[in-house]
Amino acid sequence: MDVNQLQRRWFDLTASLFREGFLDDQYTQLQQLQDESNPDFVFEVVSLFFDDSERLLNDLATALDQPVVDFRKVDAHVHQFKGSSSSIGAQRVKNVCIAFRNYCEENNREGCWRCLQQVKHEYALVKSKLESLFRLEQEIVAAGGSVPMME
Amino acid sequence: MMAATKAPLYLNNEISVLVVDDNRVNRKLLMTMLSWAKVKAQEVENGKEAVDLISSGARFHLIFIDMEMPVMDGPQATTLMRSMGVHARIVGVSGNCRDSDKAQFMAAGLNEFHTKPLSRSALVEILHHVDDNIDNY
């Protein structure tokens, strides 16, 4: 596949991520911070998000599985997740976290458990899509092209 | 990868900045924005670390501080820093929070409050303000 075709695929994939609400304008802000002095910034910050998210999902599952749930602890984990998803523009993950925190405030174990399943699902989706996007960017660069920017 | 179009930021003074946030994704984002602005910055993970750093003699013109953090939160740390005579411009940052929480944070001694994540235009405005009023901080 030539560079133009790869770049078209990149535009289509990126546009679908925004259209379907996986990403919001904050992701564009990240892209705008990436330059020659910081060429892998988006990949680095999203990788941090992946690492932290996986740890937080494990911590949340453990915390909600206790005989007596410490909802303050659960809320603190969700707060972290909401902060990092918001910082990379993972809008759908952030939105589930907002609902999740409301259930924490109500000490609602069932609601929290449902939100954990939802946030796991949304996280897996956005991770898979961002990984596809990064692979495509590598292919573009390997083919001698440059990664476009979304306006 | 392609560079973004962005106007360079010109500051007259060397501004020292402290970033206080327990979330490393948020810290990385703000530190990168500050690095883009060619501003010297340090980062710590909670309010106690910020207070300890200042107690050890570190001085900053500008402090970005998160509201909810373990060990010591933003309002507690801000109150302590002000009681220690810190004149820095202190900018509280948080995700969506209740008006009462924001009011409590402001009352602790913030100069201003922003919803996270901080936009680059908001950062530029804050840096210009500190640069123009450096003697106050």
From TrEMBL, chain A:
Residue runs in coiled coils: none
Entry superkingdom: Eukaryota
Function: Functions as a two-component phosphorelay mediators between cytokinin sensor histidine kinases and response regulators (B-type ARRs). Plays an important role in propagating cytokinin signal transduction.
Domain HPt: 38-143
Organism: Aristolochia fimbriata
Domain notes: Histidine-containing phosphotransfer domain (HPt) contains an active histidine that mediates the phosphotransfer.
Gene Ontology annotations of biological process type: cytokinin-activated signaling pathway; phosphorelay signal transduction system
Localization of this protein: Cytoplasm, Cytosol; Nucleus
Residues modified as Phosphohistidine: 79
PROSITE patterns linked to this entry: HPT
Phylogenetic lineage: Eukaryota, Viridiplantae, Streptophyta, Embryophyta, Tracheophyta
InterPro entries to which the protein is assigned, alphabetical: AHP1-5/YPD1, HPT_dom_sf, Sig_transdc_His_kin_Hpt_dom
Keywords: Cytokinin signaling pathway, Cytoplasm, Nucleus, Phosphoprotein, Two-component regulatory system
Chief site of localization: cytoplasm
UniProt GO MF annotations: histidine phosphotransfer kinase activity; protein histidine kinase binding
Signal sequence residues: none
A GO CC term attached to the entry: nucleus
Protein name per its UniProtKB record: Histidine-containing phosphotransfer protein
UniProtKB/TrEMBL annotation, chain B:
Keyword Nucleotidyltransferase set for record: no
Domain Response regulatory: residue ranges: 16-131
Coiled-coil features, chain-numbered ranges: none
Record InterPro entries: CheY-like_superfamily (IPR011006), Sig_transdc_resp-reg_receiver (IPR001789), ST_Response_Regulator (IPR052048)
Keyword annotations of the record: Phosphoprotein
Keyword Cell wall biogenesis/degradation belongs to the record: no
Ranges that cross the membrane: none
Residues annotated with 4-aspartylphosphate modification: 66
Pfam families: Response_reg
SUPFAM superfamilies: CheY-like
Protein's GO biological process: phosphorelay signal transduction system
Domain of life of the source: Eukaryota
PANTHER family xref list: TWO-COMPONENT RESPONSE REGULATOR, TWO-COMPONENT RESPONSE REGULATOR ARR22
Protein's name in the database: Response regulatory domain-containing protein
